[in-house]
Design a protein that fits this description.
The protein is mainly α. Helices cover 84% and strands 0% of the residues.
Length: 140
């Protein structure tokens, strides 16, 4: 629960900072920096603050790919991606949605690989059982 509250605080804090920065600098005609440079500063800020969060979530989802419950993993991936949408809306140039999408895609790819290996293992065991049954029941 404590980590959940920190994740929500990270996205809310960065969203608030982006909004405040945009109001103070981007919407202000007294600022001498061009809007593209200001947006670059904001993008770098957002990326720096989310990089550890992304690493943690990638590790967490990687551990969950071995779990038998698909529904929980899908809900977690959905929440993770939806939680970043407000930040992406405020700052589309930061490409946080692309990074989050890559994490979701990699997690799904790992999950498919896990199921493929499980099915392959189950098929091999079943095939061995069938061979043994045929050998035992074969008349002499």
């Amino acid at each position: 629960k404590q980590w959940y509250q920190r994740r929500v605080a990270i996205t809310a804090g960065v969203s608030l900072t982006i909004t405040t920065f945009t109001t103070a600098y981007c919407d202000n005609s007294n600022v001498s920096l061009p809007p593209a440079e200001l947006e670059g500063i904001l993008s770098e800020f957002a990326y720096l603050h989310f990089s550890d969060y992304f690493k943690h979530m990638q590790n967490r989802f990687t551990r969950e790919t071995q779990a038998p419950d698909n529904a929980m993993l899908v809900r977690g991936l959905d929440r993770f991606y939806r939680r970043l949408q407000p930040v992406h809306t405020l700052l589309p140039s930061a490409s946080l949605d692309r990074i989050a999408g890559e994490i979701v895609t990699n997690t799904i790819r790992c999950r498919v690989q896990y199921f493929t290996e499980t099915l392959h293992s189950h098929f091999s065991e079943t095939l061995s059982d069938v061979k043994q049954a045929l050998m035992v029941s074969k008349p002499a």
